[in-house]
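Quarterly update from the structural biology core.
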Amino acid sequence: MEFDFFWLAIGLAALGYFIGDGLKNFKNPAAKGLIESLDDDDSHELLKENQIHWFMGISKEDVKSLLQEYPDIPHITINGNVYYPKEKLREWLINIGA
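Predicted structure, tokenized:
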């Protein structure tokens, strides 16, 4: 019985937080939410070639084919290792699809 009130209080607190956060951005639907604001930290992150398939959501074989077909994909070579800037790669993907 004691834990029932505890879980009820936790649920009400979470409900209040989410409703308050939604009302705060009611007039500005383009505002970033909590999860999206945490995503901003990866703008300077570099991906290795073996991580691109995970980022794009495609198979490793498809990444190899993509890299051969589009050699203009934004990349940086450091000490013989090829890295792909995450934000530039995201922009490139958006532009290539348009």
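The first helix runs from residue 2 to 24.
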